[in-house]
Amino acid sequence: MLIGADWIEAGDRATFPSHDPATGKVIAELISAGPADVDAAVHAAAEAFDDWAAIVPAERARLLLRVADLVEQHADELARLETTDQGQPLPISAGFAIPMVINQFRYHAGWATKLTGITVDVSIPDIDYRTRREPLGVCALITPWNFPIMLLAFKLAPALATGNTVVIKPAEQTSLSTIRLAELCREAGLPPGVVNVVTGGPSVGRALVEHPGVAKISFTGSTEVGREIAATAGRSLKRVSLELGGKAPSVITADADIDAAVAGNLMGGLLNSGQVCAAYTRFYVARRKADEFTEKLAAGAAAQVLGHGLDPKTQLGPLVSAEQAERVDSYVRLGEAEGATLVTGGHRADGDGYFYQPTVFAGVTDSMRIAREEIFGPVLSVIPYEDEDELNLVARANDTDYGLAAVIWSTNIRTANRIARRIRAGSVYINMPPLLDPAAAWGGMKASGLGRENGFDAIEAFTEVKSIWTAL
């Protein structure tokens, strides 16, 4: 762990293993932080805050750009570390996750020198009124296991750019890339205490959320945990941002290019073995195209090559843990019990590791749990609809607790945009997989979260506005 200027060894602290999910083998032993460790990390961040917030913006930008340069220099190492610890194929870690980390730091470094307030002519004589945008203080960044280093960068880059200090709690399943990124932050010249890392399970995150020295919590993870964090933050009046679960609908209209829709939905549904909060998982297909779509989707899913993420032939890696593999399998068995038709997949793959066959269900109805609950695995549900009833289609797509992402496949841009306007989701994609960019706001509606990451929304999330009044 990193607390202040010190790398903390286990000593007499408890430890826990991190596994390579493709083999099940232990690749590292990590420290289970105790309450004293969390308290020390928060105090280290608090002690560093005033000096870090006072650094001139150009210097803060220079340091963030230096972090980006170091990540780029170590890109291959970081990608291989991420693949080994999380399981995602190397083309995802090296081609998507690590480049996004680099872009996040470079994009937000630009904001460090562009934070502005406003002046207003108030209706009081002889008064000068202006505002300043200022950092919040110590921010707790609690990250998930599906894209560990990338989703950390979504939080860390804007938090640092705006002058905050941080304590990071990575998911216990996938802490290694976070620790390495913290090393690179120190190597870049960030002062001691600006970035701190504590490792461990849910009790560590809970201690951070409850700590009185934490001003802001930024959490990505399950809706269930997000609700607990929001309740705790509400009682203590902490700032909070939550990026939570999803159950993204994919609407395939009668005039859609079916081959393009199949290819895009395979990418959007099976990326990272379906362990994506914005994964396309329930497919509303115009009835006249449903059989064709299902047949081609199932064929594409069955053709996926499963294997270790470091193997260049691999298209689909393992699930992150034995527990996640069991969870996915329990939903597949539930789908069968509910009456859905299993078209392909439906079982764990043979051999070592936590692999699961990509699975396609047909004959799914809106009320089935596989159509309503987040599975976080390679399980895809096809749900036909009567294509002349657009309003009913939108109501069905919106009939979920979640509202993170959605996609529409149509060659009629008027139809696609009309549906997009009515869908209740934070991001709606038209004829494309769920891509991300540091400049584009990201977050959910309903039970998919509070607030937004990326773009200026991230700057607002890590700052507050101060009013300054001067008598003339």
TrEMBL record:
The active site is at 243. Residues 7-468 form the Aldehyde dehydrogenase domain. This is Aldehyde dehydrogenase DhaS. The keyword Zinc does not apply. InterPro entries: Ald_DH/histidinol_DH (IPR016161), Ald_DH_C (IPR016163), Ald_DH_CS_CYS (IPR016160), Ald_DH_CS_GLU (IPR029510), Ald_DH_N (IPR016162), Aldehyde_DH_dom (IPR015590). Belongs to the aldehyde dehydrogenase family. Keywords: Oxidoreductase. The keyword Oxidoreductase applies.
